[in-house]
Every structure is written in C-alpha cells, then in structure tokens.
Write a structure and sequence with these properties.
This protein has 176 residues and is mainly α. Helix content is 68%, strand content 0%. Helix 3 crosses helix 4.
Amino acid sequence: MTSSTTPGLARFNTLQDSAARAALHEVCASSAWGGKLLAQRPYATAEALFLASDAATAELTVEDLAEAMAGHPPIGRPKPGDPTSSREQRGMAGASEELKTEMLELNLAYQEKFGHVFLICATGATGEQMRDAMKARIGNTPEQERGHVRTELGKINRIRLALVVEKVAAEGEGES
C-alpha cells in the first residue's frame, strides 16, 4: 500500500474476507461484483477501488444485473428500517400525494415491461427528476435500458463504496 491509502481504506483492505464480503454486499447485491472487488484487495487508493467497481459493473451479465437490482427497493418505497435507501430516496420524502401515486403507477408499468425495479442514482434527485427519468426511460428497449441500469448502478456503487470506507474508518477509530 502507498501513503495515499486512507485509514478507512486500509482497514477495509485488512477486513476478514467474510466481513469485507458482507460490506460489499451492502453496496451491491451482485455476488459476482462483490467477488471481483474482494479478489483485488488490497487497494492503494479509494480511486483504485472505484475503478475496480466500475470495471466489475461493466462486466456484469444480465443475471448479475438482475441480482444487483433485487437489492434495490422501488423508487418512492424505501425499505422499512433501511437508512441507506431512505437517504438515497430523500427526494421523494416530501413529494405530493399526486407524485407518489404517479410514481407507483410508473413503477408498476416499468416493472411489467422490464421485469425489474427502475434503477436510478436517486441521491440528490428530486421526486420530479426521478419521475421524468422514468418517463423518458420506459420507452427504451430492454438492451437500451440495461445500459442505463449499468450506468446508474455504477454511480450508486461509487457513492456507497465511499460510505463503506468512511464507516470502516469510523469503526476503526474506537479501537485501541
């Protein structure tokens, strides 16, 4: 490791495989993605970790993408008790009942067409922006939509990986 390794990243690099695999699964439910990142430890920098994530995301098969998407709740319905999905979907928290109803209808139509949840990097997006993105993407072919899903998943994975490295660093501070 180089001197550019942060304390949180250094700790992630030294976690037991089972703990690292669990942390990676919280980022992305694809076992193929997590396995690729696990196999490449240690990472010299957070950017190296992000680049490995991008490469692993690009290599996901259709089945791997389905496994990854299964870990994401529909927009407007974060998993109860899950602070990550609630934080990421904060843009829907203050949405009007009309917008929530419209999103439910769009989610159902999208899932019927594509067979999976609508995936978007919702961090920082308003409910209206998410709705407009879904309206724009529902007309895609399955192949076009997989490209969008892969791009959005890559963004989500980067954000969540950064949080994992920060969390690992915070957990390490309490030890002596």
